Amino acid sequence: MTVLSGASAVPQERRLVTALPGPRSRKLMARKKNTVADGVATALPVFAARAGGGIVEDVDGNRLIDLGSGLGVTVVGNAAQAVVRRLTAQASSFTHTAFSVTPYEGYVEVAEALAELTPGEHAKKSALFNSGAEAVENAVKIARAYTKRQAVVVFDHGYHGRTNLTMALTAKNMPYKHGFGPFAPEVYRVPVAYGYRWPTGPQNAGPEAAAQAIDQISKQVGADNVAAIIIEPVLGEGGVIEPAKGFLPAIRRFATDHGIVFVADEIQSGFCRTGQWFACEDEGIVPDLITTAKGIAGGLPLAAVTGRAEIMDAAHAGGLGGTYGGNPVACAGALGAIETMKELDLNTRAKAIETTLKARLLALADKFDVIGDVRGRGAMIAVELVKDRETKEPDPRAASALSAACLQKGVLLLVTGTYGNVIRFLPPLVIGDDLLDESLDLLQEALEQLGCGTGETSPRREAS
Ligand code: PLZ
User: Cα(144) to centroid of ligand 1, in Å?
Assistant: First the structure.
């Protein structure tokens, strides 16, 4: 795929010129320690200088293979040409007027693109915001205004943000919520169909988890009190969990039957990441509202709520907004990113990345018994690490050791999951096959160095 990454000014090759972190990164880290709040931690100890294609170059000149896309954002790669062209033109015309004061065309164009690309043939409208969390909060506001109900239902392992309401919606305590309560009321959490860990096996997870979730909502909350059900079609931060087949359609049906607004949080899974414009398309789900951010704007801060016009219009005039929401430079970035996704057919590219990654990771799972599960779709793939394949006891230490060892070899890999034991692969979709292959060779080397064992005597990895 040299055609894709060839567009980047950054040479598409791994290069290590210092030990990691290098001297410049170490100096910057000391300055950060003095002036940046400790709560703002960094997953990796290297500072970026430039990035493009599948490479992040650090301030010491090391070139690292990027399997994280800055938390799943740079679907089209860093500094993608169309993004830079459009945002540069916009920035030299005007950088801000506030859409709620003096509107501009770019915002409307993004809303039109969202109406075209999101699932469903119904009339759609959008509102734009700055961050994923802000989009989710506004989806809740809109659903409450429309239904005149208050309760919000979310799922085990879900992640929706770090603001007060979205902390309440997020499942995991550490690091997202710990010590930051009290949290917003009227939030209820129910089970999700986590195939790999479902007690009666992945084949039963879909219907059983749906039945449990629906029973809990009906008995503990009351369906008629529920404004919104919010779910990630692939649960990213929770560990790249694909709800087992049948789960999403059952929950969608339940929402329809009870006048509940079904919100797909596609902030991480949207915009070609899973090989579809939106991950919920894989099971033919048409959400009432969909929240987007991350991939939407090639790295610029932009987020959206898009959905049925009659629901979106339920909030009174002036009820939705914010100073910067739908900033013109960010909108220009989004139009450039969407143009790139279409031009390079990044949905097809995501599927090809899945084929490459899964083949290699499944082969590694046969050799290394620390790998309990390989899962995900498109360029959103993960391996779950366990101490023992029978008990499936999570192995978070192996995950952090592995990501640290990969970093030393020049590969940026992120750890995630409720149990901190999932290594995820979220590369920019414009990464070259050569870089992907190389990163997997290096991952294999790291697994060997860490003595992760052979799977010859262990039961085979379970498909989930
Ligand atoms: N919904 C599904 O994945 C952001 C956050 C990582 P913001 N995920 C990465 C971290 O440590 O903060 C996310 C998401 C889903 C909502 C959000 C929130 O998006 O743009 O970070 O607010």
Answer: 22
Per domain, the residue ranges of the chain are: 23-66+346-449, 82-343
pTM > 0.85: yes
Burial class (CB in 10 A: 0-12, 13-18, 19+), 125: middle
Label residue 1 by pLDDT band (50, 70, 90). Answer: very low
CATH number of the 82-343 domain: 3.40.640.10
Whether residue 191 contacts residue 218, with contact meaning beta carbons closer than 8 Å, is answered with no
Question: Rounded to the nearest 10 degrees, how much is the dihedral formed by the CA atoms of 9, 13, 19, 20?
Answer: 70
Residue 71 alpha carbon to ligand 1 centre in Å:
8
The finding on whether 169 has its CB within 6 A of some atom of ligand 1 is: no
Average pLDDT value for residue range 406-410: 97
Q: What is the CATH number of domain 23-66+346-449?
A: 3.90.1150.10
CA of 161 relative to ligand 1 center, distance in Å: 5
Q: How high is the pLDDT of residue 460?
A: 44
Torsion angle of alpha carbons 249, 252, 256, 258, nearest 10°?
A: 110
* Ligand 1, atom 16: closest residue by C-alpha: 160
Pocket perturbation via mutation, ligand 1, pick of 267, 274, 278 by most ligand atoms within 8 A of CB? 267
Query: What one-letter code names the amino acid at 385?
Result: L
How many Cβ atoms sit within 10 Å of the Cβ of residue 253? 14
- Distance of CA 166 from the midpoint of ligand 1 (Å): 10
pLDDT band at 454 (very low <50, low <70, confident <90, very high): low
Q: Which residues contact 274 (CB under 8 A, 6 or more apart)?
A: 233, 234, 282, 350, 376, 377, 378, 379, 380
Cβ proximity of 81 and 426 under 8 Å: no
Decide: helix, strand or coil at residue 177: coil
246, with CB counted inside 10 A (0-12, 13-18, 19+), is middle
Measure 188 CA to ligand 1 centroid, in angstroms.
20
pLDDT bin (cut points 50, 70, 90) of residue 2 is very low
Q: Residue 47 and residue 33: Cα distance in Å, rounded?
A: 13
